Amino acid sequence: MVDAVSFTTFLKISMQATTNAKIKEIEKLYTGEGGYDFYKKLKRVPVDFANGKLKVNQLTGYMSGITRDVEKTHNTKMALAFCNWWQAQNNVSAVKRPKPLKYIPTGFDFKIRIAPELAYTDRNEHNLIYLWAVAKPALNKITAGAGIKLLKDAFSETPYSDYSMKILDLRKNKLFDENSLTNQSGLILNAELAQFDAIKKSLGV
After folding, report:
1. In this structure, are residues 86 and 50 in contact, taking their beta carbons and an 8 Å threshold?
2. SS3 content of the chain, % helix, strand, coil (to 5)
């Protein structure tokens, strides 16, 4: 049984089309049938690549420890997508991987595990990046906006409180930044948090 839902899994569940689908996913998560981090190897790539410790031609070897072929293939593909995106960035500095945290949203009693892959400075802008590598459901602007609001709330009392929160969709090579936030993002996030909390309590998990 997990003690916290990951940021990615929370957003995935929020995009389920029906309440019944959400119930099934939350039940799987907390009863030990879900929660496997398919892209755990990918998470180590951004800082190593950005700091020059990893080259593109080393990605295959970097992923060699993954035993499942499908997992290895997808991790390698998404790592290459990140490398290609990063190579187009200029004037970056102060690259690091933020310390993961477990965030308890205000008014609720469950934890969300948030582990952004990268923080860096581009000219005078500080950025915190969370990678999205999931194929289905596809990340949309509304959910990305709610996710960015969640990141801002979670890191509001950390050294990253003044960073610009962003989600990099490696599937589409699309960067969702704080322009994805709308007046409705907070309301949407709170509604999803409340529904997740209610379902979790109804299941007794």
Report:
1. yes
2. 45, 15, 40
